[in-house]
Amino acid sequence: MVNERKLRWEYLLGDFVMGNLAWLLLNVCRSFMIPFSYGQGSRNFLTSGHEILLQFLIPLFWMVIYYYSGYYNRPIHRDRLEEFRQTIISAAVGSLFVFFLVILNDNSIPYQTFYKLLLLSFSFQFILTYLFRFSLTQRLMRLIHQRKFGRNALIVGAGKRAFEFNKELDSLPMGVGSLVKGFVDTGREQKVVPDDKILGAWDDMDRVIRDNKIDEIIVAPDSHEEKPLFDLLKNLYKYNLPIKILAGKYSILSRAVKMTSVFTSPMIEITRDNMPEGQKNVKQSLDYFVAFVLIVLLAPLFLYLAWRIKKDSPGSVFYRQERIGYLGRPFHILKFRTMRQDAESGGVPQLSSDTDDRITPFGKVMRKYRLDELPQFINILRGEMSLVGPRPERKYFVDKIMKEAPYYCLIFNVKPGLTSWATVRNGYANTMKKMLDRLKYDIVYLESRSIAVDFKILFYTIKTVFTGEGM
Of the ranges 2-16, 367-381, 427-441, which is most confident? Predict the structure, then answer.
């Protein structure tokens, strides 16, 4: 079994040590290049309290830079060319920060010396860091090729395609990182895989994954029909494991093919979206920061809205409702209550509209300006939601949508959002048709996710709030 956390810590520790060594070498050079005054010598400079503190803080700064480059997100199956690119760009950007924040504070020296220090800072950081990373990555790749290291893989399917794919993996002269532990028979196709390689039936998935310490799931159905495929997928997200599918004639997935190895049949990695890894980290940090700041700043507004809700109608201030979120897991979304307390007393979920008589007078005002959504900043701080992402639905409606559009489960790859492109374009989805129309925008958003796209959606959301176009 791959210990991804341990591997990530190896890279983290190595980067810290190399950052420490690079800064020490740069300081030795600085101590000979800076004209000291008041009798301060090289030894005193290197052992000063200020420099000793920087000797600890600068490597931490480099780890922050590498974190926001996305380098630590996927420590297994690294692309060595991408590793080189990430390291050189991070070293260049980080060296500029260090230069302007620290080195420019040195005593007055010729500007040519500053250029030399900047070049030395970049060279030490890049060379030392990349040499460590290259050696560790090479060692890992050698172990992977020798089939001594990799992800424990489970193939879902026991038909001809599953059998042929496993045979293809076994025939390769070197490992590609997937160590197949066995198969699960879904019962949907004629069984070709020998019984001794089948770990269980579809109903045994929980036990099979637990007992065999599975790290990734490879779905290999004989059929190319999308509906049966997505029926399988929606039940696999809950395991929080990478899910790959042998590429086939799947129209909704045709643009999602990612080559995991040049040696094997192409696979679609369903659980990996197109947002660059570094941007994912920036997005998550912005989510927490913006949510925390706005909760603090909008606290007086929260109090006012709570008072108006209680004044407008009897009942609780907040409305908690179960929704289906990231990886298909249920969570309770928070809203300010805009309807009567007994709005769904019949127990059957109902869609709302701007003429719904269940909405209270002040509830209409809150919906118009999207004020009822503000408590979802708490959901963001809990890690259940993001500022931007597909809007989450109740299980009742998720099941109905998936009967019409089974690929709906693809939105489980990302956290649901406080706002979304679909919401900006279509407003509240108060009919099944609108829900299906909204799904088209959500799928396109998944394919084009980026920080720039998120900021654009946030801009139009703010515009919607201030113009009162929320209904």
Answer: 367-381
